[in-house]
TrEMBL record:
EC category: ligase
HAMAP family: Met_tRNA_synth_type1
Catalytic activity line of the entry: tRNA(Met) + L-methionine + ATP = L-methionyl-tRNA(Met) + AMP + diphosphate
Keyword Metal-binding belongs to the record: yes
The organism's taxonomic lineage, starting at the top: Bacteria, Pseudomonadati, Bacteroidota, Bacteroidia, Bacteroidales
Entry similarity comment: Belongs to the class-I aminoacyl-tRNA synthetase family. MetG type 1 subfamily.
Protein name: Methionine--tRNA ligase
Function: Is required not only for elongation of protein synthesis but also for the initiation of all mRNA translation through initiator tRNA(fMet) aminoacylation.
Gene designation per UniProt: metG
Record note on quaternary structure: Homodimer.
Protein source organism: Xylanibacter muris
UniProt subcellular location: Cytoplasm
Record PROSITE patterns: AA_TRNA_LIGASE_I (PS00178), TRBD (PS50886)
Length: 681
């Protein structure tokens, strides 16, 4: 395929919905890879801008507002600030991070739609959509729930079943229900404007399937599956009261569809950044456009938005869309509704200063072509075994030894031995290796190459043992540390796109303000006589206690979700009152309680049942109570069960317990003091 040359690059990252915070799935799927790429281009001194912003329209915003009893604007104001700060804290280096409620965006999106309308590029259609007669409004897909026709999940949304992943039309739902009023919606006619995707199908096939075979297999494959079907016109307007009003006559109560509105945000945010020169970043054929997104947005960025741009005319089209798949958390799908996530703002509160550790692990586990999994155990192991034991260990040894033997001054390089030459030869291609991978968006492999440079350095200094050689040949140690320090300086460049915070600290330690990408692979980055800064640890070991806290937090979340989803078991078949009367349920006072030897589950109770003779009952609740917790308590027991032997002990009844949804047993007690032997009636 013919290689294209561009003067500049426009990089966009998916606009997150401003209805919640940002979690590690967002970071791994979109923002870390986008930031790595942009930092790499900047290091190469290329002309690049990085565009981001909050998506502040659409149904998720209105759902959150209704749930909290506030306005949609209140919601987006809160979360826009939170999201923006999270990105800043993690070094996601946007040139602009704006929002789709800005005046600039509203006007540009409105004008964009109006041009399509005036040019006859949209079609007007009247269709039947669900209408809530109690709330007096048409229902967006996410305002409708019902039974999925495929997996029979009773809480599927009108556009998708989150249990089986099926895309749905609201009319497919069994027993649809409005989430606003709870009533069953009715079908009612309404008019909207549609983008005729079908008219662009052949053009899309040629542009993508013939012209962009270099796209990632997961992106290309999803595009092909869409284009192998018959594309249908897609509505670009909605019957909602939150969004940008449709700028044509007879469109009262309608707003621009969020997936028409949102991608235009890339353009409007660029216009905010460069009011006078924004067009060169979007309309000049010598500008390359790259979209970083998650796999759920592929169809919008590869089919819908390009058709919008093509229909409008004058805009460039995306050159690549390196979409990632999804990141799971501890073998379970990340879910904001279930709070099954690692939120960035919480992570920084609990692990301050460890942004680069998370960036490193997320890149190492990047779901570039298939779904991947984040576990806290892997997080700990990669930190301790790679960042600390390899990268950090090598840097610390090289700098500390230089401080010890030469007061932190770079020594002279003497005559090279075979091991020196082999080591220098090993990392001479590091620039090409990392660059070749970054150019094709293989960030996971590129980071491996950067870490391989640290492994080369660690192996070299371990093999040469300068701390031993110093006693017999100080001149040789000068050469060993000179070469080690050159590798340290190279690491500061190689890791700059991936780990910006630790790279900045490392540059301070070697007393260099900045490097260029072209310097990577050089063996004379630090001249003899150069004064280094003060060495410090780049990374610190993570103990089990830290990781266990995070695991417990997730376990607590899981229990809270189970509690929220709890439904009582169905009531058993009706029995006659006379059958119930056969049970003799009494109050008993626990005089003593002890564990049954060689039985993990059993406790032996001595019960005062009011008869004057103590009763022995054996109960299988040992894993829920310590014996001393129960001594002195009044409990309910069945007094007229036939005795049975358990572990050789005759049990004369059954203590009543309630089983919670999580399997825990709770012994039943009474609210007021009554005499032992009192009947339950």
């Amino acid at each position: 395929m013919e290689e294209k040359n561009f003067k500049r690059t426009t990089v966009t990252a998916a606009l997150p919905y401003a209805n919640g915070g940002v979690h590690i799935g967002h970071l791994a799927g979109v923002y870390v890879p986008a930031d790595i790429y942009v930092r790499y281009l900047r290091l190469k001194k290329q002309d690049v801008i990085f565009i981001g912003g909050s998506d502040e329209h659409g149904v998720p915003i209105t759902i959150r507002a209704k749930k909290e009893g506030i306005t949609p604007q209140d919601v987006v104001d809160r979360y826009h600030s939170m999201i923006k700060k999270s990105f800043e804290d993690f070094g996601i280096s946007f040139d602009v991070y704006s929002r789709t409620t800005s005046e600039t965006h509203s006007k540009l999106a409105s004008d964009f739609f109006k041009k399509l309308y005036d040019d006859g590029k949209l079609i007007e259609k009247e269709t039947e959509q669900y209408y809530d007669e109690e709330a007096h409004q048409f229902l967006a897909d996410r305002y409708i729930t019902g039974e999925c026709p495929h997996c029979h999940n009773p809480k599927a949304y009108g556009d998708q079943c989150e249990k089986c992943g099926s895309d749905l039309d609201p009319t497919e739902l069994i027993n649809p229900q409005s989430t606003i009023s709870g009533s069953q919606p009715v079908l009612k006619k309404t008019k909207n404007w549609y983008l005729p995707l079908n008219e662009y199908q052949q053009w899309l096939k040629k542009w993508i399937l013939d012209g962009h075979k270099e796209w990632r297999p997961n992106v290309y494959g999803q595009c092909k599956s869409w284009l192998d079907m018959d594309l249908q016109p897609r509505a670009m307007t909605r019957d909602l009261d939150w969004g940008i009003p449709v700028p044509v006559e007879d469109a009262e109560g309608k707003v621009l569809y969020v997936w028409f509105d949102a991608p235009i945000g890339y353009i409007s945010n660029t216009k905010e950044l460069f009011p006078d020169t924004w067009e060169k970043w979007w309309k000049d054929p010598e500008t390359r456009l790259i979209h970083f997104i998650g796999k759920d947005n592929i169809v919008f960025h590869c089919v819908v938005f390009p058709v919008m741009l093509k229909a409008h005319g004058g805009y460039i089209l995306p050159e690549n869309v390196p979409a990632n798949e999804f990141l799971n958390l501890e073998n379970d799908k990340i879910s904001t509704s279930r709070n099954w996530a690692v939120w960035l703002h919480e992570y920084l509160e609990e692990m301050p200063g460890k942004q680069d550790v998370l960036r490193y692990v997320l890149t190492a586990n990047a779901p570039e072509t298939k779904d991947n999994n984040f576990t806290w155990k892997d997080f700990q192991e990669r930190n301790n075994n790679e960042l600390v034991a390899v990268y950090g260990n090598f840097v610390n040894r090289a700098l500390q030894l230089t401080k010890k033997y030469w007061n932190g001054v770079v020594p002279e390089c003497g005559e090279l031995t075979e091991v020196d030459k082999n080591t220098l030869n090993e990392f001479k291609d590091v620039k090409k290796n990392v660059e070749d991978l970054l150019n094709v968006f293989k960030f996971r492999d590129a980071q491996k190459e950067a870490m391989n440079l640290a492994r080369i350095g660690n192996r070299y200094i371990t093999e040469c043992e300068p701390w031993k050689v110093w006693k017999t040949d100080p001149r040789r140690v000068e050469t060993i540390l000179y070469i080690s320090l050159q590798i340290v300086a190279n690491l500061a460049i190689a890791f700059e796109p991936f780990l910006p915070f630790s790279s900045a600290r490392l540059r301070k330690m070697i007393n260099i303000n900045e490097f260029n990408w072209q310097d990577l692979g050089s063996t004379n980055l630090l001249a003899a006589g150069h004064q280094l800064g003060e060495p410090e640890l780049l990374f610190e070991k993570l103990e089990d206690e830290v990781i266990n806290r995070q695991l417990q937090k997730l376990e607590d979340t899981k229990k809270a979700n189970e509690a929220a989803a709890y439904k009582a078991d169905p009531i058993k078949d009706t029995v006659d009152f006379s059958d119930f009367e056969k049970l003799d349920i009494r109050v008993g006072h626990i005089k003593n309680c002890e564990k049954v030897k060689k039985a993990n589950k059993l406790l032996k109770f001595t019960i005062d049942d009011g008869t004057g003779t103590d009763r022995t009952i054996v109960s299988g609740i040992a894993k829920f109570y310590e014996p001393e917790e129960l001594i002195g308590k009044d409990v309910l027991f069945i007094a007229n069960l036939a005795p049975r032997k358990l572990m050789g002990i005759e049990s004369q009844g059954m203590i009543l317990s309630a089983e919670n949804f999580d399997g825990n047993l709770s012994v039943t007690t009474i609210l007021r003091n009554v005499k032992p032997g009192s009947k339950v009636c």
